Structures are given as structure tokens and as C-alpha cells.
């Protein structure tokens, strides 16, 4: 199924963007941050780079799920559902308000697998973000393409290892406005995050699916509240189970070690781990 897709490996695309003050203001509002200055040249939290570099595909180029149809830059994977499986990020310099930034994306690998819900294909993207030619962040994303949702509920993913003892725990109940505002910031048209009828009838979910980026953002923000003035330096995250809008969840984390390394995770209302992040903060 992936033989013809391998020719897409190595393709690259560059997108330019700007860390504009209105975007920083909106992200600060979403995260209830009052400590981020908006003047030109002021440093921005590293992990807020997530709101830049949207695809901005023309309306006519969107698929039924609201994403850009595959076959333009992304390969034409013959599976209908997609989700972010994992990502790895390293930051080397803070973005600043007003920065002109470029992101070069390369299709690094296309890997077929068989999982709990059937056939999967993982497309790994490697992003390099530069400012005036200097790299300020490198990211790898694993996009998972899945078979159509079955009526029977999929089993929960098994945790790869027991979670450590939490040094802190925060209640977290994502609501539709939060999901909408995050999707709007990213110009993310994926309908499972804002169209409840489509999420239920089109993809078989019981409610709106919380964007993995939302969970990641609020986990990192919760950790940073415990380390005022610190920045996220490195993350490696794995999506394990979905969170659903309106259902109580919990954000947890360990205390950082001497190198600033900690484990962060989110649990759903049953206690199952939804997202796990190995982070370095300093």
C-alpha cells in the first residue's frame, strides 16, 4: 500500500510567517497569561511557535474532514482519518515579537504499521525554523493515518510504563470555546475539534476531540507556572488516548531534576493516560 508513497520521502516545502503582536496577544488571552510583553523585539515563550506556519489551504482544496486534501505536499495516503501521534522539539533561541521566521518542512519517512484499530501509516515530518538564516527550533512530527472508525469503541492504549509520582496535579476541563480559539489561532480546519455532528457521525467519536496541541500547550503552561521565568527547551511527546470536550481531565507533572528534565502527562476522566511529555525546562 505504501510502495508508491515512498517517492514522496525527501520532498520539502518552506513557509514564511511572522510572530505578530496580535497573535501573541491572542495566545496570552487563551492561556490567561498577563506576563508576556507585546512590544516589538520582546521574547515570546518558545512553545508558542505552535501557532505559526498554518497551511492556509484554499477552501476548494479542503477534504471532507476540513484538512487540506492529501496529494499536494502531503502524500496521498489511502486512509481517511489522521491524528498527531507524537512529536519531538528542540528550541535553541526564543522567538521575538515581530520576528520574520521561515519553516522548511521535509517528509522524512513514511512507515506502515498495524495497530489496535487496524492498518496505520505514519508520515514523519521534519521542520527547521529559522530567523535570518539561524535555526531557532527543530521539530519532528509523526502524523498517523488510520482506517475508518468502527462502531465498537477502540481499546485504551496501554501505558508504556507506570507514571511517576506526581509533584503537582491540576484539574483541566476543555470546553468548546477553548478548542475553537486554539483552532482559530492555528487556522486549523480539522472538524473533529469544533463540529460535534461531524466528530460523532463522520468519525465515530462521542464528542469533540481535544486537539493534542491544546493538551500539550496547557501541560507546558502548567509546568511553567511552577518555574517563573523559565522557557521550554526540549520536548518529546506521545499521544496515547484522546481527550473529549467537556469531560474532566487532569494535568500532572514531576518536579524537575538538576538539568530541568521532568515528565508531564494528561489523564482522561477514567484515569487513562492521554498524552505523555518528556520535557526539559530551564
UniProtKB/TrEMBL annotation:
Coiled coil: none annotated. Residues 69-137 form the FAS1-like dehydratase domain. InterPro entries: FAS1-like_DH_region, HotDog_dom_sf, Mitochondrial_HTD2. PANTHER family: HYDROXYACYL-THIOESTER DEHYDRATASE TYPE 2, MITOCHONDRIAL. This is FAS1-like dehydratase domain-containing protein. It comes from Roseomonas fluvialis.
Amino acid at each position: 500500500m505504501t510502495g508508491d508513497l515512498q517517492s514522496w520521502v525527501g520532498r520539502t516545502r518552506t513557509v514564511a510567517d511572522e510572530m505578530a503582536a496580535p497573535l501573541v496577544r491572542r495566545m496570552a488571552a487563551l492561556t490567561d497569561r498577563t506576563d508576556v510583553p507585546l512590544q516589538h523585539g520582546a521574547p515570546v515563550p518558545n512553545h508558542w511557535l505552535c501557532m505559526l506556519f498554518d497551511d492556509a489551504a484554499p477552501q476548494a482544496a479542503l477534504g471532507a474532514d476540513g484538512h487540506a486534501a492529501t496529494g499536494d505536499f502531503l502524500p496521498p495516503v489511502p486512509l481517511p482519518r489522521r491524528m498527531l501521534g507524537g512529536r519531538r522539539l528542540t528550541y535553541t533561541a526564543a522567538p521575538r515579537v515581530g520576528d520574520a521566521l521561515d519553516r522548511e518542512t521535509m517528509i522524512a519517512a513514511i512507515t506502515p504499521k498495524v495497530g489496535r484499530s487496524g492498518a496505520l501509516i505514519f508520515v514523519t515530518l521534519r521542520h527547521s525554523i529559522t530567523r535570518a538564516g539561524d535555526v531557532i527550533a527543530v521539530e519532528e512530527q509523526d502524523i498517523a493515518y488510520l482506517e475508518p472508525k468502527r462502531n465498537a469503541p477502540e481499546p485504551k492504549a496501554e501505558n508504556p510504563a507506570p507514571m511517576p509520582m506526581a509533584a503537582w496535579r491540576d484539574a483541566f476541563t476543555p470546553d468548546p470555546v477553548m478548542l475553537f480559539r486554539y483552532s482559530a489561532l492555528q487556522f486549523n480546519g480539522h472538524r473533529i475539534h469544533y463540529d460535534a455532528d461531524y466528530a460523532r457521525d463522520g468519525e465515530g467519536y462521542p464528542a469533540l476531540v481535544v486537539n493534542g496541541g491544546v493538551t500539550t500547550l496547557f501541560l507546558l503552561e502548567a509546568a511553567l507556572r511552577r518555574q517563573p521565568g523559565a522557557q521550554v527547551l526540549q520536548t518529546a511527546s506521545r499521544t496515547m488516548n484522546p481527550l473529549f470536550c467537556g469531560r474532566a481531565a487532569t494535568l500532572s507533572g514531576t518536579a524537575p531534576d538538576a538539568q530541568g528534565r521532568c515528565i508531564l502527562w494528561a489523564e482522561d476522566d477514567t484515569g487513562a493516560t492521554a498524552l505523555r511529555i518528556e520535557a526539559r525546562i530551564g
